[in-house]
Write a structure and sequence with these properties.
Length: 401
Amino acid sequence: MTLPQRRVSARIGSIAESATMKVDAKAKALKAAGEDVIGFGAGEPDFPTPEHIVEAAVAAAKDPKNHKYTPAAGLPELREAIAEKTTRDSELSAEASQVLVTNGGKQAVYASLAALLDPGDQVIVPSPYWTTYPEAIKLAGGSTVEVFAGPEQDYKVTVDQLEAAVTERTKAMLFVSPSNPTGAVYSPEETRAIGRWAAERGLWVITDEIYEKLTYDGVPFTSIASVPELAEQVVILSGVAKTYAMTGWRVGWMVGPADVIKAASTLQTHLTSNVANVSQRAALAAVTGPVEPVEQMRQAFDRRRKTIVEKLNRVSGFQTPVPQGAFYAYVDARGALDTEIGGTSPSSTAELAELILEQAKVAVVPGEAFGPSGYLRLSYALGDDDLVEGISRIEDLLGST
């Protein structure tokens, strides 16, 4: 019998590996091989999960009720807690039936797109964007329409730009504030203007709010879901990974109209069934527990934010706007391209990032992972000492201004 020529489906074969995970894996592999590599790649807090959350998980592991299947959409008490949190923080009145608990934020991204998109539907995605969004859109049968905003706009798109991108096939738009990868935070006025525009256009808005607790300099978080006209055409994505230093626990969620959540929940019954119960119990402790550990981590990120911007702006060819949220600095590195560095002249930030890794032993993510070339993303969720040492190595390689 002759096997078919194609061993892997065209659908799966067409998607790209996560660029941030690829950089992080390479950095960790080099470390394991004995290389002194400092990684700015993955957006992963260096703090341990707060103790009260770990204690809740230990207790849950010992309770036999958590050793069995539970509802695929999530533990009822966790769904209720997320609904209450959404009503409070996002100013969108939500009930437990409007919540789906997912295996991390990435599953929430895919589930929301799979529930909303038909083949050929277009999704407007402000760029720079998180590397997973276009691939998840492709998997769901849609296509991405990029709308780029550079540093001269503080990496924030305008209503006029969004309007120019709309076609008769546009079904939805993604909105991310605070932003991964840029750290940009839309003002209340900017957020509401975009929300009202989307409502008038009849578009779905998928808003990723996983960094909502991480803003600085008194800048407020404003949920686009707070625009009343959007109530029936908005889906909120979030999770515990970033705010509570729980990247490995794999708990995310989506909140939206009941019919969309029911459809996504049905998908989950076939895809994964329930999220691990111990992780759900830990997430419940996180969402309902004390806020002091979160604030302590936010203050540490704030300190590192100021340090990384100051040091990056001393590197020759780098210009770094001050991020107002999340824990990323998005460097305009166009001034460092096509110049002689360590015996070579990189013409793209993909080549520049490779050069920095090879010669400075520092892992950064090139802008090509998030949109146009010319930029670098550095996470400042790593320790203070590594942060200073890593930027110093880059400065030694590229020179100072």
